[in-house]
Amino acid sequence: MASFRSVLTLTNSAKLALSTRSMASHPLAGLLGKLNHVAIATPDLKKSSEFYMGLGAKVSEAVPQPEHGVYTVFVELPNSKIELLHPYGDKSPIQAFLNKNKDGGMHHICIEVRDIHEAVTAVKSKGIRTLGAKPKIGAHGKDVMFLHPKDCGGVLIELEQE
């Protein structure tokens, strides 16, 4: 029985080493960083903010982002953030989202990248469409680029410069 366990351990270690090696040689290895935030569109920013405050979270004030057509509120978590989004102005993309989702819901996820320009080139080389020709400044004052949800498993993904 002990020899069977040794073989099983050796086999599992070899599989782990093989999978780690194959990930390291992937062309996008090391490109993606940590999850920065999950963005939630909300029809009632005050109510949503109070919900997270009631759970003991640190919640920022609402900040208008006219260039993006949104108000943002950040909910600080120990390992990430939640970004609450509410429409700002008549042409807000969040209003279009809320027209389809009256109660609000998850809008996008944001993943940090070490080099936004390298990341954009890499995803485009994989046939992933971007929502814009070049990165623009996001809510954190850093370059961001959104990836088309139809190319990302139905999820709108925001890449943000670390």
Automatic annotation (TrEMBL):
<dbReference type="GO" id="GO:0046872">
    <property type="term" value="F:metal ion binding"/>
</dbReference>
<dbReference type="InterPro" id="IPR051785">
    <property type="entry name" value="MMCE/EMCE_epimerase"/>
</dbReference>
<dbReference type="InterPro" id="IPR037523">
    <property type="entry name" value="VOC_core"/>
</dbReference>
<keyword id="KW-0413">Isomerase</keyword>
<dbReference type="GO" id="GO:0004493">
    <property type="term" value="F:methylmalonyl-CoA epimerase activity"/>
</dbReference>
<dbReference type="Pfam" id="PF13669">
    <property type="entry name" value="Glyoxalase_4"/>
</dbReference>
<comment type="function">
    <text>Methylmalonyl-CoA epimerase involved in propionyl-CoA metabolism.</text>
</comment>
<dbReference type="InterPro" id="IPR017515">
    <property type="entry name" value="MeMalonyl-CoA_epimerase"/>
</dbReference>
<dbReference type="InterPro" id="IPR029068">
    <property type="entry name" value="Glyas_Bleomycin-R_OHBP_Dase"/>
</dbReference>
<protein>
    <recommendedName>
        <fullName>Methylmalonyl-CoA epimerase, mitochondrial</fullName>
        <ecNumber>5.1.99.1</ecNumber>
    </recommendedName>
</protein>
<comment type="similarity">
    <text>Belongs to the methylmalonyl-CoA epimerase family.</text>
</comment>
<dbReference type="GO" id="GO:0005739">
    <property type="term" value="C:mitochondrion"/>
</dbReference>
<keyword id="KW-0170">Cobalt</keyword>
<keyword id="KW-0479">Metal-binding</keyword>
<feature type="domain" description="VOC">
    <location>
        <begin position="34"/>
        <end position="162"/>
    </location>
</feature>
<dbReference type="GO" id="GO:0046491">
    <property type="term" value="P:L-methylmalonyl-CoA metabolic process"/>
</dbReference>
